[in-house]
Structures are given as C-alpha cells and as structure tokens.
Design goal:
The chain is an alpha+beta fold and 164 residues long. Helix content is 36%, strand content 20%. The protein has five helices and six strands.
Length: 164
C-alpha cells in the first residue's frame, strides 16, 4: 500500500447467526463486540462502531485500501466465530450464517448510521432483523428474494438518502 493512497469508504456491514438463531444475551454480546473492535484494530481495519444483537451484528467500518469487502467480512466472521467457540461464549457450537450485507455510507451520513447502530436494542423492539434487513436491501436498490438472497436491480441506481 502506498503512503500516498487516500481513501474514505464507509461501509455498514451486517451479518447474522446461523439460522438467525438468538445466541447472545447482553453480557455475551458485549464480549463479542469488544472482540470485534480489538480484532479489527489488530488487522488495521477502522471500526467506528459495532453492535452485537442476539442474532446479528452491525458494524460501521472504513474499508482499507488494500482489502476487499469480502476479505474483511471473512476475517471478522471467521475470527469471531473461532473466538466465540474457543472462549465458550455460548453453550453449543457457534457459527455465523451464510452471507452478509455491505451498504455504502456517505461521509455526511456517518453520524446518522452510528446513531442507528448504537440504538439497535431499542430499534429491535419495533422491527425484527428480517424486516430491517429487507428494508435496507430495498432502500439500496436490491430486490429482496428471501432472507439469504438478494439481487441487484441496477448498477445505476441512485444512492439512498438514509439507512432508515
């Protein structure tokens, strides 16, 4: 990576547990959240905020110039699932589900997305993870197929105004 490479590419990442099964109480979720923060820092991934819900994770990261979205998600999901099992954070064998969501965030939208992520506990008293994920996919111009499959409508779709 060149010291002359300048980049700011905010991504709102979302991924869920296997079968969308609720696995984390607040204390366990906090441990996983701390692990994700520390691990991202270790890998030189700037993670501005994350929130671990009972069955899914939200994270806002700045995509490093030398890594792809796929590489980052693989690192975060792989290392955290290994750590969760190694530390016996949950009683049974833990695994994240297939796939993830990666949604671009403009610099002017960072504070709003941070507030949205920080307010997840309250937010999910009103909307389920499936409803939330489907809405985000739709806002970002994707056609919702089911909980695991979406397809792009158009590369030329205008960027969304808000993640809510």
């Amino acid at each position: 990576m060149s010291i002359h490479a300048y980049s700011r590419c905010w991504l709102h990442l979302i991924w869920g547990t296997l079968n969308r099964e609720g696995m984390f109480d607040p204390a366990r979720a906090a441990k996983v959240s701390n692990f994700l923060t520390d691990y991202a820092k270790e890998k030189n991934i700037y993670m501005k905020i994350n929130f671990v819900n009972t069955e899914h994770v939200h994270a806002l990261i700045d995509l490093p110039t030398g890594m792809t979205i796929e590489q980052i998600v693989k690192l975060l999901k792989g290392a955290s699932s290994h750590w969760i099992n190694e530390q016996n954070i949950v009683a049974e064998r833990f695994a994240w589900g297939r796939g993830y969501g990666a949604f671009s965030v403009s610099q002017s939208g960072v504070d709003e997305v941070c507030a949205y992520i920080a307010n997840q506990a309250e937010h999910h008293r009103i909307k389920s993870f499936s409803e939330e994920y489907q809405r985000l996919a739709t806002v970002y111009g994707l056609i919702w197929r089911n909980e695991e499959t979406v397809e792009m409508v158009s590369v030329a779709s205008p960027p969304p105004k808000s993640p809510r």
